[in-house]
Amino acid sequence: xxxxxxxxxxxxxxxxxxxxxxxxxxxxxxxxxxxxxxxxxxxxxxxxxxxxxxxxxxxxxxxxxxxxxxxxxxxxxxxxxxxxxxxxxxxxxxxxxxxxxxxxxxxxxxxxxxxxxxxxxxxxxxxxxxxxxxxxxxxxxxxxxxxxxxxxxxxxxxxxxxxxxxxxxxxxxxxxxxxxxxxxxxxxxxxxxxxxxxxxxxxxxxxxxxxxxxxxxxxxxxxxxxxxxxxxxxxxxxxxxxxxxxxxxxxxxxxxxxxxxxxxxxxxxxxxxxxxxxxxxxxxxxxxxxxxxxxxxxxxxxxxxxxxxxxxxxxxxxxx
Length: 320
Ligand code: NCD
Description:
With 320 residues, this protein is α/β, with parallel strands linked by helices. The chain has helices spanning 12-29, 54-65, 86-95, 110-117, 133-147, 165-176, 205-209, 233-240, 244-250, 280-300, and strands at residues 43-48, 69-74, 100-105, 121-127, 154-158, 180-184, 200-202, 214-217, 256-257. The protein has 2 domains: 12-132 and 285-313, Rossmann fold (3-Layer(aba) Sandwich), CATH 3.40.50.1370; 133-281, Rossmann fold (3-Layer(aba) Sandwich), CATH 3.40.50. The chain has a 5-stranded parallel β-sheet with strand order 7-6-5-8-9. Helix 1 packs across helix 10 (280-300). The longest helix has 21 residues, at 280-300. The chain binds N-carbamoyl-L-aspartate. Residues 54-55, 126, 132, 135, 165-166, 219, 221, 259-260 line the site of N-carbamoyl-L-aspartate.
């Protein structure tokens, strides 16, 4: 495989294989020198046209732990601000001899467009409302850590589903790993045609919470709303927010996930993120390991398939 553009482009076997090899990469982080030589000599560039804290950092840390060189094209201070097109920017990056481009863009499909212009591998780090495949991988990995397996588990995804590339990628990955998914949102925050999605839909959070194995909260993505879709944020929080009262009814064993950034006081009450069952920090930590696995799969094994055979090479530490 050369690119990772959508979670749907991974077969279920590839998805499971990536999750199976991720712990080998997580182990690297616990070493005194958290670095292996796997991608030495290769260069990974991040090209983010939308704001990001954890995803961009996570890819950068992942690439560095595999000994790749990294470049960050900061759109705010690049020629993009002078009106340079995605194509010209991409070709400039390519001319520098880059091996992989990690791209985030407000337009759905932008990463596919890049693959037509570049020889480099392209990894989608979020395109508009559409896809965010590495988020889905890290969410599956975190849920497996918490629940053992997703098979037969019931996961509620709550909040602004309509604008969420995370929800679109997660629904595909969770259901392919055997989970059932209920989307919980007001009608205005649901995408059209949810009947074609492999999910159940509910507008009643309290009743869904009585019967879940995990809760996945989403932020209100105001930057993607062209109109006001919730008349009043306080009313939204009352009906769909994970308040302290709802969290206590949930009990202490059900994991609570969120891709970040959290809006405390909106989709999650201010002190709920501090509960032990909130695994947001694990998601961030696992994100690095999963992205190492993805970079290694795309760049580290000569594109000959998944790196199971090459994994022993990982054991070698980079000399200090
Ligand atoms: C998400 C995104 O950008 O799609 N965040 C992330 O990647 N961690 C979700 C969001 O912005 O709410």
